[in-house]
From TrEMBL:
This is RlpA-like protein double-psi beta-barrel domain-containing protein. The lineage of its organism: Eukaryota, Fungi, Dikarya, Basidiomycota, Agaricomycotina. Residues 63-154 form the RlpA-like protein double-psi beta-barrel domain. It comes from the Eukaryota. Residues 1-18 form the signal peptide. It holds the Pfam family DPBB_1. The keyword Signal applies. Keywords: Signal. InterPro entries: Expansin_CellWall, RlpA-like_DPBB, RlpA-like_sf.
Length: 158
């Protein structure tokens, strides 16, 4: 089933209102900021962000950053609700596609050598670059203290 861009925006806007999500945390706001910063039209931007980019297992991605986010009972882009204790990740929107849902990623903090294997469960429209990943609280705690907020990472699909 194909949805028009207007339908996607309407759904995201009504979902944000229904869940009492502040506008600045809604999918619509994230999309508007992405389009503003990228200078692309809505449809072109949406299609570009939802296209799957294949990353072969074993190819190490460097130069990214890990941050963490609270689940708050909301489903991720893959459609599943997770807890903060689940080892999950949100992949940068330029890489994300539903074919990546459930794929495993090994993330390493090169400053301390700690690693964690997580499952892709969401997309991350606010990630700094294509090699950045947003982690659940539990996943982030496996590689760094949450007081750090953001750490450099290397990662690979496994």
């Amino acid at each position: 089933m194909k949805l028009s861009i207007a339908a996607v925006i309407a759904f995201a806007a009504t979902s944000a209102l229904a869940l009492s999500i502040p506008y600045k945390q809604s999918a619509v706001y994230a999309r508007e900021m992405y389009e503003r910063d990228s200078g692309e039209g809505a449809l072109e931007s949406f299609e570009k962000r939802t296209r799957v980019k294949h990353d072969p297992a074993g190819q190490v991605n460097t130069g990214g950053y890990a941050t963490y986010f609270y689940q708050k009972g909301n489903p991720g882009a893959c459609g599943t609700v997770h807890s903060d204790d689940d080892l999950i990740a949100a992949i940068d929107s330029t890489r994300y596609g539903s074919a990546l849902c459930g794929k495993q990623v090994k993330i390493t903090n090169p400053s301390n050598g700690k690693s964690v294997v997580v499952k892709v469960a969401d997309n991350c429209p606010t990630c700094r670059n294509a090699d950045s990943i947003d982690l659940s609280v539990a996943a982030f705690k496996n590689i760094a203290d949450t007081s750090q907020g953001i750490v450099g990472i290397n990662w690979v699909f496994v």
